[in-house]
Amino acid sequence: MATPHISAEKGDFAKTVLMPGDPLRAKFIAETFLTDAVEVNHTRGILGYTGLYKGKRVSVMASGMGCPSIGIYSHELFNFYDVENIIRIGSAGALSERLKVRDIVAGIGSNTTSSYAEQYHMPGTLAPTADYTLLSTAVDCAKARKIEMHVGNLLCSDAFYNEGGMEETVSWAKMGTLAVEMESTALYLEAARAGKRALTIVTISDHLITGEATTAEERQNTFTQMMEIALDTAARMEEV
Prior knowledge:
By secondary structure, this protein is an alpha/beta fold. It is 31% helix and 27% strand. It has a 5-stranded mixed barrel with strand order 5-8-7-6-9, surrounded by 4 helices. Helix 2 runs parallel beside helix 5.
């Protein structure tokens, strides 16, 4: 039962899917952390795998970049493949002076410049938020590994190259926003509409205030603490 964007059959995905943006990060996670991993999707180069982590069935598939891309893939996973939980694991730019490069942030809420929510025709403003069960489980998993994980609001932006300049993006920090990325709003809204669970966990890849940054290769292969927290969370969700 392929969809327009996923070539897998029904049942190929586990209950929980980890979604990095980069297909090569999905491949790295499958090869590094999963046993008996099988490729279940390669349509449009969006690599997806299902295997075992600590004896629990877990899937990982790329989402691509931006709200439209993760919106398509999360919608199809939630609505056509019986996926219950999606954990986005990606990179983000720090907006807060409290953060430094390689810090990990879980997004409890998603402020946004995106118009993605307009399709739902709600008589007000939707507030995209993470699922509490996923979030609290991830916090517990981070504590178990003695990893500090910051929890707060993200900014989900539709523009990577913002014509308004860096100042406009950094201004979100005055409202307590920790970091900026490009996918959380669509993921949280798709989960809410489907009655499913979603969470975004990001590693700070660059700092919009200090200018510190990591390389593309480092973002692909070295953000392992975030990956381990998400995998531990996925394994625990098998018991929920």
